[in-house]
Design a protein that fits this description.
The chain is built from eleven helices and 20 strands. By secondary structure, it is of the alpha+beta class. It has two domains: 188 residues, FAD/NAD(P)-binding domain (3-Layer(bba) Sandwich); 125 residues, D-Amino Acid Oxidase, subunit A, domain 2 (D-Amino Acid Oxidase, Chain A, domain 2). The protein binds flavin-adenine dinucleotide and 3,4-dihydroxybenzoic acid.
């Protein structure tokens, strides 16, 4: 078997890259470890930066987003019930969109089905080889049959646990673990807020997001080793009521249809490139979810990588590919610092050595939020980063 670009992973990064290549008339095959049903069932991120929305529009992949996405003009930040709106439109003239990753993946996949794209599900043992030369391959097992895919380029869009990163000799990583995670729920209840609410509270962080005008998405900071079995629906709503509570505002409760706990991590590799192999998305970096940057970073990577691959394959111009890793990592480190800053500012840091140190820490976080509420400069900076940095390989 032969293709031009072998893409490992059919998450948002792999699926979107496939569309970018298709539109430039470049052949690709996507190899995915899980089943189509599993892929469509994964509930993850929910916020698209304006740059991500623009990319989907440019590619003509925004029909579902335009129908179902919710345009948001800012976010609410809160501590101990004190709520403040940060208006992105007024501050930096930009918006974000609420559109679930699950909906995006379903739409990208449906469009691939319409095009008859070559996507292979439930393949195992994917293994890139020959990456130093001009004839790389990816071997894999499909339905028990060992197969080899010859190609010009390999893209590891295979997430944090993928094989792409492990195929780069000498690669190193920079990382930070957090001693907490997010308990996320989906609930059948109309959102109780217009824009998302991010709240710092003495009991820990809480957030109110949404998926539609009928479905709310809410999160609670929990310890990293907590079990979802210890969180009954009643306990979850109690904690959300306490942490999100604000005078004159009501959090409406509804049936919880999904709940799970996600650990939090910051992680960046030393390089996204080895010979003919390129990493994109979670394969190369992970952020804690507080700034809503994971999915957007994956879209930024494949937009830059896609343009570079098209220039190389169509025009023989390798400069984009040569600069891809540096350009994507340079953007990623800015995103990393923003996500870490939002996470540190809004979460309870229980690991401080004693009650006094914890109190000092909490009060300085409140000071940071109060500074933000009163400073247009600080709000502009937050708005600029939340709404999204440009995607560029130049
Ligand atoms: P993925 O979506 O991980 O896709 C990689 C794909 O590669 C997967 O389908 C996987 O099955 C496949 N794969 C892996 N290994 C192989 C292999 N060896 N062979 C073939 N296929 C393989 N971000 C936010 O901004 N906000 C959130 O609220 C948020 N919540 C999250 C919750 C969870 C539980 C997780 C895990 C992530 C969350 N994220 C969130 C991050 C965001 O979802 C990711 O950044 C995004 O999915 C990255 O897309 P990707 O395509 O790079 O990777
Ligand atoms: C959602 C997730 C985030 O990480 C975030 O910062 C905002 C919203 C969400 O799932 O809706």
């Amino acid at each position: 078997m032969r293709t031009q670009v072998a893409i490992i992973g059919a998450g948002p990064a792999g699926l979107l890259l496939g569309h970018i290549l298709h539109q430039a008339g470049i052949g690709f095959t996507i190899l995915e470890r899980t089943s189509r049903e599993h892929l469509l069932g994964r509930i993850r991120a929910g916020v698209l930066e304006q740059g991500s929305v623009d990319v989907l529009a440019e590619l003509g992949l925004d029909a579902d987003l335009r129908e179902r996405g919710l345009t948001h003009h800012g976010i609410h930040l809160q501590h101990d019930g004190e709520r403040h709106h940060v208006d992105f439109v007024e501050l930096v003239g930009r918006t974000v969109s609420i559109y679930g990753q699950q909906a995006l993946v379903a739409h990208l996949l449906a469009e691939h089905d319409r095009l008859g794209s070559d996507i292979r599900f439930e393949v195992t043992d994917a293994a890139p080889a020959g990456l130093d030369g001009s004839n790389p391959t990816v071997s894999y097992t499909d339905g028990g049959v060992a197969t080899e895919l010859a190609c010009e380029f390999v893209v590891g869009a295979d997430g944090y646990h993928g094989v792409g990163r492990r195929s780069i000799p000498g690669i190193t990583a920079f990382e930070r673990d957090y001693p907490f995670g997010w308990l996320g729920i989906l609930a059948d209840v109309p959102p109780s807020t217009d824009d998302l609410i991010y709240a710092l509270h003495r009991d820990g962080f809480a957030m109110h997001s949404m998926r539609s005008l009928e479905v709310s998405r809410l999160y609670l900071q929990v310890a990293h080793d907590e079990s979802i079995d210890d969180w009954s629906d009643a306990r979850i709503w109690d904690a959300l009521q306490t942490r999100l509570g604000s005078d004159g505002w009501t959090l409406h409760e509804g049936a919880i249809t999904e709940k799970s706990i996600t650990p939090m991590r910051s992680f960046v590799v030393s390089t996204l490139t080895h010979g003919r192999l390129f990493l994109a998305g979670d394969a190369g970096h992970i952020v804690p979810p507080t700034g809503a940057k994971g999915l957007n970073s994956a879209i930024a990577d494949v937009t830059m990588l896609g343009r570079a691959l098209v220039r190389s394959i169509r025009e023989g111009d390798e400069t984009g590919l040569a600069g891809y890793s540096d350009a994507a990592l340079s953007r990623q480190w800015k995103v990393q610092q923003f996500s870490q800053w939002m996470t540190d500012m809004l979460h309870l840091h229980r690991e401080a050595p004693d009650a006094s140190a914890r109190d000092f820490r909490y009060r300085s976080q409140v000071g940071q939020l109060e500074y933000l509420f009163g400073s247009r400069h600080a709000q502009e900076s937050l708005a600029e980063q939340y709404a999204g940095l440009p995607f560029t390989t130049e």
